[in-house]
Amino acid sequence: MPSFKTSDLTKKQSYNLITGAIVPRPIAWVSTISESGLLNLAPFSFFNGIAVMPPTLGFTVAYADDDRGYKDTYRNLMANRECVVNMVTDTVAHAMNITAKGFAPDVDEFEEAALIPIESELVQPPRVKESLIQFECTLNQVVTLKNEVGHSDLMLCNILMIHVDEAIYLGDYKIDQTAYPVIGRMGGSHYTQTNDLFDMTRYHKIDNTTEL
Ligand SMILES: Cc1cc2nc3c(=O)[nH]c(=O)nc-3n(C[C@H](O)[C@H](O)[C@H](O)COP(=O)(O)O)c2cc1C
Question: Where are the domains of the chain?
């Protein structure tokens, strides 16, 4: 069994192993606004819900090796501490990929990917109209992860508001998992669709019966 000590690995080797193994990853499609009022939109798959109470999500922005250094999303969030995390479903997968191109800070990715920005209720950055679930967030704290090879910043965000498209809302605060075509990122250029569901009911600890 090939085994690897991470301190011996290059950045690329670590990237290949970690992003190929920890899959599928949901994608945070993050909209922010720059200090001068420009819209920005970019995907981040080092992403997850972090806590229910207080409602919190987190995604990680890597410091870029090229001349860009800090990515626009990081700079904008640090400037005004607001973002919207839009979930990515199959119909917007291609548009999401366009917004990852690494455009200059003065380029509006909504325009580049022909997406419609709609006003948020509690924060300045707009939501992606085409996204079926959108989280309006403020920045709670940044955890900077650093070693001698590079650094990344985990952006922990308070979820202030959750918008759910009617088509996937069951009522009673539940999302219809059979109708929600969210995509996941796999290793390399692979993605996965999430419509292959199976069910397992949870066991009660005491008598081994199941609960619904
Ligand atoms: C599906 C997908 C997931 C990505 N995940 C991350 C990530 O977790 N962290 C990161 O720093 N970059 C990630 N990227 C790359 C960024 O989206 C890319 O660097 C983008 O240009 C950043 O834009 P910004 O400078 O406008 O913030 C990802 C790209 C794609 C296509």
Answer: 6-211
pLDDT, residue 212, reads: 53
Contact call for residues 8 and 95 (beta carbons, < 8 A): no
For atom 13 of ligand 1, which residue has the closest CA?
44
Q: Which H or E run contains 185?
A: strand 183-185
Q: Which of 11, 22, 45 to mutate to test the pocket of ligand 1 (most atoms within 8 A of CB)?
A: 45
Sign of CA dihedral 130, 133, 137, 139: negative
Dump pLDDT digits (tens) for 144-170: 999 998 899 999 999 999 999 999 999
The pTM of this model reads 0.96
Q: Is the CB of 25 under 6 A from ligand 1?
A: no
Q: Domain 6-211 has what CATH class?
A: mainly beta
- C-alpha 43/C-alpha 25 separation (Å) is 12
206 to each of 45, 67, 89, 140, 200, how far by Cα in Å? 38, 58, 39, 39, 18
CB 9 within 8 A of CB 3: no
**What is the residue type of 13?**
Q
60 lines ligand 1 (CB under 6 A): yes
Task: Name the closest-CA residue to atom 5, ligand 1.
Answer: 44
- Looking up tokens 């950045």 gives 11
How far, rounded to the nearest angstrom, does the alpha carbon of residue 116 sit from its chain's CA centroid?
A: 19
131 vs 115: CA distance, rounded Å? 10
What are the structure tokens assigned to 123, written together? 């924060």
